[in-house]
Amino acid sequence: MLLNNDRISIPQMTNILILTLIGIGILTLPRELAEVVKTDGWIVLIAGALITMGIAFLHGYIVKSFPGKSYFEIIALTLTKPVAYLLTTFFAIYLIGSNGFLLRIFAEVVKTILLRRTPLEAIIIIMLVPIGYLVRKGIEPMGRLTNIVFPTSVIFVILLFGLTLGEADFSKLKPVFQASPQQLFGALDIVLFSFLGYETLLVFGSFLKEPQKATRVGPIAVFAVLIFYLLLNIATLVNFDIYQMQHLIWPTLSIFKTIEFPGAFVENVEIVVMAVWVFTIFMTLAPFHLATTMLIEDMIIAKEHSYLVLPTLPFVYAVTLYSSSIADVYYDLGVFTDYTAYIAIIGMPVAILIGRAIRKLLKKDKENM
Amino acid sequence: MGFWEKLFGKKDKTAKIENVKSNRSLEKNLKIIKEDFLKDCDDIVYREIELGKEGNYKAATIHVDGMADKKLVNEFALNNLMLLARHIDPEPNVLKNGLYDLIKKQNIAVTELKEVETIDEAVLNILSGETVLLLDNYEKIIIIASKGWPARTPQEPETEAVIRGPRDGLVETLRMNTTLIRRRIRDHRLKVKNYQVGVRSKTDVSVMYMEDIVNKKVLQELDKRLNAIDIDAILDSAQVEELIEDKWISIFPQVQNTERPDVAASAIYHGRIAIVVDNSPFTLIVPSTINAMMQSAEDYYERWQIASVIRLLRYFCLLIALFAPALYVAITSFHPQMIPTDLALALAATRRGVPFPAIVEALIMEVTIEILREASIRLPGAIGSTIGIVGGLVIGQAAVEAGIVGPLMVIVVAITAIASFAIPSYNAAISIRMLRFAILFSAAAFGLYGIMLVSLLILIHLCGLKSFGMPYLSPFITFVRDSSDLKDTMIRAPQPAMNNRDVNAPKNQKNRLDDKREETFDIEEQE
User: Fold this and answer.
1) CA-to-CA distance for A164 and A100, rounded, in angstroms?
2) Between these two residues, B463 and A162, which has the higher pLDDT value?
3) Which GO terms of type biological process are on file (chain B) (predicted)?
């Protein structure tokens, strides 16, 4: 029987992660890669994905080691309570900040392509409505939503990529292995950031039906997204010149401008693409916000997370209006993630694992004595 | 406070609790019934009779005029008691102590007899159409089953007409309905449980389910919810539906209803529960999913390819009914670059001179259509269709000529209206009509972005919705676990392929069909 017990299955969690990972990054990733390593982007993508899979495995391992425990409880167990308060707050700030910047970039894109004369604030605020609505409902409806959104997006993505092949020139993929190791290493940063989002597993881990299988969730999700990014990279490279691409703000949207539907009942497919993209962005923003509210819920030992949804949304809104222009947003996002992401994604999990190891050692000592 | 107020005053729940024991004296009993319970009820018929050769045993029958089958009572109860009984000399010993047993077991020749000990129950039975037999010197009261009132015979259901398939529909009498359903299920595991709902109306409600296929938790939950209903009267199954559904605030119907006994029987075979309510030809089915509102009984009586194509068409109609006017408004006012240039020019030419923005244009036509539809339902058949023609053709044409709407808008609205008729479930179609306006307004404010966000809101709402514990969107969201349920959604798979019951059924009862055909038959082959 399927009662409202707030449990999600492993496939649902994987879906949530995949949709969380695919977000803002897809707009700029091909250009950023082309700027640094030209046509060798795929090497960096694969390398970055392998590293990310490793980290995601680590996150899964933590969830698996503490089945049913919330992230706050895990930190409190391994690194004492005061540290837990500090780190959880930090993690929540990281999530709110990323959410704000993502929402801002999203709104800018919507404004540029769909609604030129609508104020940015209006676009942002009405996006917050479905986010608030879904987050109030909790993780189980979110899992079900991904069950619908994910297959639909896959069909759309395959269809759209198929259509971009019309004027593809595969010789543009050459030459390969031209970038120096330094360049490749420098570009790794871009890829690692474009994979961000899998850290929500740490928060949602306590809702998994089978936490013992948690380690596979992250790597599978990252692998799926890697395939998507590789497709995207190839699709943009075969359609644009490498130099042309460096001058496009959002090359991903530009390739869809080149599509012509057979039969021509719709022109400018990029509007349709935008419409689908709204779903995937939504599925990045909503899990982030859900994770935020759940972290705060655990911290203040609240019974019901739904009351915390609305009070936290203004913070997200404040971050969206922090930067003044689209260029500033990208700069500020870069600075913000530089300061927070590494600690949130690698620092905290490693600290937890070390804390756990020390705990175990102490325990053994006690038993030996 | 007098007994009358106690019984039917403000706290009328006491009517059920109050147990008025019956007396040994016939006079007293009659007095209680006549003066305390059924005072001023002139449709109650009292018949006081005297039994035995000497006529020294007093008795009385009571029934409601018109609700009891008079002929049955006359021929098989009164006739036996009053006439035939006189031909035999009564043995004093038997009569002295055993008159009651004699009458109960030997004299009255009807199939069903009950006995009750309180006057409340007796009165309730009288009001349900039974005949009550009171005997002097006995406390027990005999109830003769004599329900019989004018009832409609099964007719072809109007709301769910089919080209091929059974033509009998449910009627307003509970027992007839349960019979129509049971006729299709000759299985001792079909259970029929009775409830009485409504403090005053005491409406009979029967819950029908297949004992071994039904989900026990759903059954328990239904039992809980039915018992929790505390209302004065139930006039139709719609009231029961509203009182047992999961979220009354939602616009989507979470309980399926049907006028067809074959649909109800099929649901029972699939482990769902049918709730038959007296006085209503609509049977409720729980748990229900969004899939149920897109299915028609005919899908299973036609060939599967045809049924599948029609199902796909219906889902397409659902999309049109929801989005068509909104897309028109969004594209013409926000994203004209989406339309191919030629079409855009043609569109602009037809809209030249229309003084309103697209949203006003759309609202004028949509509201007109809704008014037309409402008006044609109220009018009798022939005039109704005339209104349709006058409204649809004349007003549409005139509006275009007057230059207040563009011709394309008329086309869009007409297609939308027709598409919403293609959704089999009427109450679902109404929700779709309402949601269409929400999407229309969002399109007017935010274009395609608005449409996407409102559809997202609707999707989120649907994802959170459950009908008796079953996710409303299943099997579209449960296919990861069990993809076989998708065989009966957007398409209707051939019968041999639909060998499983849906996700709701217990694990050991999954299988429903084995295809044992062997294709070895050859007409030419010599024996």
Assistant:
1) 32
2) B463
3) spore germination
Closest residue in B to A262 (Cα–Cα): B340
Instruction: Sort out which chain A residues have CB atoms less than 8 A from B271's CB and list them.
Output: none
Distance from CA of B454 to the nearest CA of A (A): 8
- Cβ separation of A266 and B218 shorter than 8 Å? no
Q: What is the pTM of this model?
A: 0.88
Q: CA B397 from chain center: how many Å?
A: 40
Domains of chain A, by residue range, sit at 10-364
- Optimal mutation site among B214, B456, B458, interface A, most CBs of chain A within 10 A: B456
At A8, is the secondary structure helix, strand, or coil?
strand
Tokens 């949304």 sit at which residue? A313
| Sequence-ordered strand ranges (E) for B21-170 | 44-51, 57-64, 113-116, 131-135, 141-144
Given an 8 Å threshold on Cβ–Cβ distance, is B463 in contact with A265? no
Whether residues B339 and A266 touch (CB distance < 8 A) is answered with yes
**CB spacing of B456 vs A282 below 8 angstroms:** yes
Mutant choice from B214, B224, B452 vs A, greatest count of A C-beta within 10 A: B452
Of B215, B337, B480, the CB nearest to A268: B337
Q: What is the pLDDT of residues B302-345, one digit of tens each?
A: 999 999 999 999 999 999 999 999 999 998 888 888 888 888 88
Rounded to an integer, what is the distance from CA B265 to the centroid of its chain?
A: 13
Regarding predicted confidence, which is higher, B55 or B115?
B115
Identify all chain A residues contacting B340, using CB atoms and an 8 Å cutoff: 264-267
A118 and B338 within 8 Å at the Cβ level: the answer is no
Is A10-364 in CATH node 1.10.3720.10? Answer: no
With helix as H, strand as E and coil as C, how does B391-417 read?
A: HHHHHHHHHHHHCCCCHHHHHHHHHHH
SS3 B311: helix
Rounded to the nearest angstrom, the minimum Cα separation between B37 and chain A is: 46
- Alpha-helical (H) ranges within A7-68 are 10-21, 25-37, 41-65
Q: Across the strands, what pairs with B204?
A: B196
Collapsing DSSP to helix, strand or coil, A22 comes out as coil
The DSSP output letter for B521 is -
Minimum Cα–Cα distance from A111: chain B residue:
B449
Which residue has 């948690």 as its token pair? A214
Phi-psi region of B370 (alpha: psi -120 to 50; beta: other; left: phi over 0): alpha
Q: Distance from CA of residue B342 to its chain's centroid?
A: 51
B166-176 exposure pattern, b = at least 16 Cβ within 10 A, e = fewer:
beebbbebbeb
Residue written as token pair 């495995």? A57
Whole-number average pLDDT of chain A:
87
Contact A271 B476 (CB under 8 A): no
Per-residue confidence (pLDDT) for residue B17, from 0 to 100: 45
**Contact of A221 with A17, CB cutoff 8 Å:** yes
- Quote the pLDDT of residue B226: 94
Phi, psi of B18 (to 5 degrees): -60, 115
**CA–CA separation, A62 and A346 (whole Å):** 12
Mean pLDDT of B152-170: 88
> How many other C-beta atoms are found inside a 10 Å radius of the C-beta of residue B492?
25
- Position B264 pLDDT exceeds 70: yes
Share of chain B above pLDDT 90, in %: 32
Q: How far is B83 from B72, CA to CA, in rounded Å?
A: 15
Q: Using an 8 Å Cβ cutoff, are B302 and B164 in contact?
A: yes
* Cα-based torsion angle of the residue sequence B52, B54, B57, B58 in order, rounded to the nearest 10 degrees: 110
Output the CA–CA distances (angstroms, integers) from residue A25 to A28, A80, B122, B424, in the order listed. 6, 36, 77, 43
Query: For residues B329 and B176, what is the distance between their CA atoms, to the nearest angstrom?
Result: 51
A175 cis-preceded (ω within 30 degrees of 0): yes
Confidence category of residue B186, pLDDT binned at 50, 70, 90? very high
Q: Which residues of A touch B458 (CB under 8 A)?
A: none
Helix axes A139-164, A270-299, angle to 10 degrees: 150
